[in-house]
Design goal:
The protein is of the alpha/beta class. The strands form two sheets. Strands 7-6-5-4-3-2-1-8-9 form a nine-stranded mixed sheet. Strand 8 and strand 9 form a beta hairpin. Helix 6 packs parallel to helix 7. The longest helix has 24 residues. The chain binds iron/sulfur cluster (SF4) (2 copies). One iron/sulfur cluster binds next to loops.
């Protein structure tokens, strides 16, 4: 089970595509965090509980992070339940103290870094408008040098998608080995932007192949995920996200949401499914889950339905307000990702590329897991 604690709505960046809405300071009170941990631990049937810190920028207040980690350890310790910690961060505040805390508590850090300087500074600037790339790059280096597990998420946006291939090179040279290019599904993708995306994806696939040919083992999503779905359809059916069931996101107010991306400014009553004091409201939860049980008619008839993330409740909610219905843009993007993944896979298979063959045909397949943010 995954419990996401949305530690604060405040953030020191002003990304052009931020889906969180208005920035305001509302740190999570300690009693809300403790109560959220109790709710999640009581509901957790799996072998461990993942405690994920999210925001806003969750590392703004180091004291709060320390206290929440201690509260989680205390609550889990009382029940004998193992914990894993995750943090999603914009990477601007990773000083020695924060890095030490993440390392000491065996965190997995998901750093938002949109790639090369041109790509990143086009979209991710500080509140005063100054660029953040150099800061995030330096801090990501520090994080990796300290031995913290790092996954980089880069948002593909109309403003930076022309730099996709250079961004892959930049991140690979930085030492990142697990990266996910995730589309901004709320962006203004007009014909020009879609055409830049198509060209960018092809160049991305080419650079990825070059890296593998040079012996660099790299996990690159969404291509990796789409290759897995080609080979292991049954498994992929079983790893769809846990939206509202094995996943609980908690706002600083204590309100509960089915996914971290749906907390936003904590003002969408239709997306809220209860609070930490009275628990999950079964009627509200059912209202969110029911639309996902019936496949959209177009998806039901589609050959790609088992390779597509049409089931992503939060992306669907953001774009169509229906957790079970993907938008036309998502459909187009999914088709583009599958086509590029198949082109790359066919080429590498034809070459019998050793890294590709090991990763996809010899080692057990790595689960595609939940969607990237
Ligand atoms: S770092 Fe995250 S929360 Fe902050 S502005 Fe950017 S997208 Fe929004
Ligand atoms: S969203 Fe589009 S590509 Fe995906 S299953 Fe539905 S129709 Fe097919």
């Amino acid at each position: 089970m995954r419990l996401t604690l949305f530690l604060d709505h405040a953030c020191n960046l002003r990304c052009t595509y931020c889906y969180n809405g208005q920035k305001f300071s509302r740190p999570m009170p300690r009693d809300v965090a403790r109560r959220a941990l109790d709710v999640a631990l009581d509901a957790c049937r799996g072998p461990d509980l993942v405690v994920a810190l999210f925001g806003g920028e969750p590392l703004l207040d180091l004291g709060l992070v320390r206290d929440v980690v201690a509260l989680a350890r205390e609550a889990a310790g009382q029940r004998g339940k193992p914990l894993r910690f995750h943090v999603t961060t914009n990477g601007t505040l990773l000083d020695d103290e924060r890095v030490a805390l993440l390392r000491e508590n065996d965190f997995t850090a998901q750093v938002s870094l949109d790639g090369c300087r041109e790509a990143h500074d086009a979209t991710r600037r500080f509140a005063d408008g100054s660029p953040s790339h150099h800061v995030v790059v330096e801090n990501t280096r520090r994080l990796m040098a300290a031995g913290v597990r790092v996954r980089v998420v880069s948002v593909m946006d109309p403003a930076n998608v022309a730099h996709l291939a250079d961004s892959l090179d930049f991140l690979a040279d930085l030492g990142v080995r697990h990266l996910h290019f995730a589309p901004n599904v709320l962006g203004h993708w007009d014909d020009d932007a879609c055409s830049r995306m198509e060209q960018g994806l092809r160049a991305l696939g080419d650079r990825y192949m070059e890296r593998l040919r040079r012996g660099m083992d790299l996990r690159l999503d969404p291509l990796h995920g789409k290759m897995v779905t080609h080979l292991a359809t049954e498994e992929c059916r079983s790893v769809r996200c846990a939206f509202g069931q094995d996943e609980l996101a908690v706002a600083p107010s204590g309100r509960l949401y089915p996914c971290d991306r749906m907390v936003r400014a904590d003002s969408d009553d239709d997306a809220c499914m209860g609070d930490v004091w009275s628990g999950v409201d079964a009627v509200r939860l059912e209202r969110l889950l029911a639309p996902r049980r019936t496949l959209d008619a177009e998806c039901a008839a589609c050959d790609l339905r088992d390779r597509c993330t049409h089931w992503c409740g939060c992306a669907n909610w953001e774009t169509t307000r229906n957790p079970g219905r993907p938008s036309a843009l998502q459909c187009w993007l999914e088709r583009a990702f599958v086509a590029e993944a198949d082109r790359v896979a066919a080429t590498l298979y034809g070459e019998k590329n050793p890294l590709f063959m090991t990763r996809f045909y010899e080692a057990p397949l790595v689960r595609i897991g939940r969607r990237g943010a």
